Amino acid sequence: MAKNAKANPFLMWVLGWAGPAWINLVKWTTKTEVIGRENFDQVMNSEEGFIVAFWHSRILMMVPMRQLYKGKRFWFMISEHRDGDMIARAVERFDISFARGSTMNQRKKDKKKGGADALRTLLKALKEGEGVGLTPDGPRGPRQRCQAGVAQLARLSGAKVYPVGYASKRAKILDSWDRFHMPLPFTKGCYVFGEGICVTGNTPEEMEASRLEIEAALNHVTKIADETMGHDPVMPAEHRATRQDR
Prior knowledge:
Elements: H1 9-29, E1 30-35, H2 37-45, E2 50-53, E3 74-78, H3 82-91, E4 97-100, H4 112-127, E5 131-134, H5 149-157, E6 160-168, E7 171-173, E8 181-183, E9 187-193, H6 204-228
Parallel strand pairs: 1-9, 2-5, 2-6, 3-4, 3-5
Antiparallel strand pairs: 6-9, 7-8
Helix pairs in contact: 1-3
Keywords: Acyltransferase, Transferase
Domain DUF374: 69-143
InterPro entries: DUF374 (IPR007172)
């Protein structure tokens, strides 16, 4: 199917009903704990904008987490790819605003316009003290490898990046590129909040160091979540060379 193909209208309708229903079912039947509560409280009590970063495989239960930020507008970066249409339809009922585009992979020339528009939207939101959720390995991976966009957004906005992991005890790990973690109802779950990461460097070397710091922190909190819920941690995809590596 072409990359910019439109999603099936019937499928979109099903997701618009079934997605929120499933998320709410899991939410209301799951006993959830928060590890790193002090970091969570720091986000909740801050009047400054903040970035919450999580891997693409854990996006489903990051949606109801939005409801904890009462009084703050919350944004998700959603790709312009067909998959982004499906995600947007599934979570639009949870009072989440969307910036469509991708600031994640600067090598994709055809994404520049959408990425620039999304970047401006998110920078404005962060300056106004709002929250932004990003999947640094989305929309197509490699799995659990942080792309440059989240560090760039943090540097330009001055907002801290808070890595968040999630896992539930009863879950189906899908055979997808990201090993999607599909939580099941009537179980236990946990969020793991890491410390906020400041990105202040300007040189390519400093930005790469920040990117790697965010990646390591995200893998760490996700590993804790998996192990707490009795799962073997999902391993990051094999490293792919980027221009910075060459």
